[in-house]
Amino acid sequence: MTTRQRLHRDPDPRLRRSLAAALCCSALLVVGLLVVVGLRVQQVHLGYQLDTMRAERARVDVLLRQLEIEVATLSSPGRVETRARQIGLTVPAREQVRRAREYVAGGASGVAAARLVRAESVIR
Description:
Elements: H1 13-74, H2 77-86, H3 111-123
């Protein structure tokens, strides 16, 4: 009587360890590649931002130059004088000009103090 028998093999623990090691190495390799790809994508993104910022800076530099030219043009003495004449300003007469030292604050000297003394005497 011969019965058909099945052979039973015990699993080899070395095979299981080598498969686990291969799986860990593969996982580390995939994670490493994903990190490298992520860094490259970030680098490209930052490159685009840098190009945008450079273009913006160039635009601002051009605008700054235009504004400096406009300020220089608007504050030129000839233009200021012409504009002053257009709105009715004239050169002050000699008696209209006062020097700053005539108006000394806190003291009893100068034109302002003399006017104050005269005004007080008229009121009394």
